[in-house]
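Lab notebook, design round three. We kept the backbone fixed and only want residue identities now. Task for the bench partner: fill in a sequence for the structure below.
Input structure tokens:
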């Protein structure tokens, strides 16, 4: 599932598993676990309005996240008749798409800087999860970023389209979404998808933590930070039904 550790004013959310090869597929249970963790992180930050915080999201093992859990969708359809099995399978996929949407909203409105420390493969919804953060750090020795929909013959949920449009250039979207190109760290850096790349997962996390500490030391107001982020993604806010608030809090 996931765990949260707090080091000073930096929250570390880790997708966890007992299995080394677990690919952290995003089924409703895992999505709910992540959302609960983020809600608790937000609650802790709100209870300390004079402090600044940052969030790092990472994972154990060889994967960051391999997207929606298609095995879960298929398993949930096992008991249906043949005529209803395909319909049930598609309904289960739509259910995961619906469950994931408010998680993107949670990250967009979180009152602190957010950093995705990608330790391995990030595909489909796992890629979207990483891109929902303010910064994306990745290792260059292993792992790819990949949107599989064009190869699988699936359209993108509209909020995926808007997320990628507001975060990335046309060239990057064309390569990722229309060609299904698998990007290694340095290719992601070249296209502006990744902010920095490092030789190992440990170095990725170390750099993410150092950036988190640097941003925490700025002592920014979290609510103001969140509103600035939402202001930079107005169409995504609209797609997510996320309210933008006017806050006047001048610094003296």
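Proposed sequence:
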């Amino acid at each position: 599932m996931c765990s949260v550790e707090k080091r000073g004013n930096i929250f570390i959310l880790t997708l966890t598993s007992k299995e080394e090869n677990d690919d952290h597929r995003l089924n409703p249970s895992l999505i709910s676990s992540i959302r609960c963790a983020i809600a608790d992180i937000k609650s802790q930050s709100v209870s300390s309005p004079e402090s600044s915080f940052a969030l790092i999201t990472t994972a154990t093992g060889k994967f960051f996240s391999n997207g929606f859990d298609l095995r879960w969708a298929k398993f949930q359809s096992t008991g249906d008749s043949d005529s209803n099995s395909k319909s049930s399978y598609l309904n289960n996929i739509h259910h995961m798409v619906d469950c994931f949407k408010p998680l993107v909203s949670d990250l967009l409105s979180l009152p602190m800087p957010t950093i995705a420390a990608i330790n391995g493969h990030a595909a489909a919804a796992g890629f979207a999860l990483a891109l929902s953060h303010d910064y994306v750090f990745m290792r260059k020795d292993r792992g790819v970023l990949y949107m599989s929909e064009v190869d699988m013959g699936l359209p993108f949920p509209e909020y995926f389209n808007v997320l990628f449009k507001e975060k990335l250039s046309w060239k990057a979207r064309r390569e990722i979404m229309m060609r299904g190109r698998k990007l290694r760290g340095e290719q992601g850096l070249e296209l502006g998808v990744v902010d920095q790349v490092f030789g190992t997962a440990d170095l990725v996390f170390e750099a993410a933590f150092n950036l988190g500490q640097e941003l925490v030391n700025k002592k920014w107001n979290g609510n103001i930070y969140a509103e600035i982020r939402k202001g930079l993604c107005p169409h995504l806010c609209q797609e997510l039904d996320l309210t933008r608030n006017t806050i006047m809090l001048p610094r003296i």
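Keep this in mind before ordering anything: The chain has a mean pLDDT of 93.
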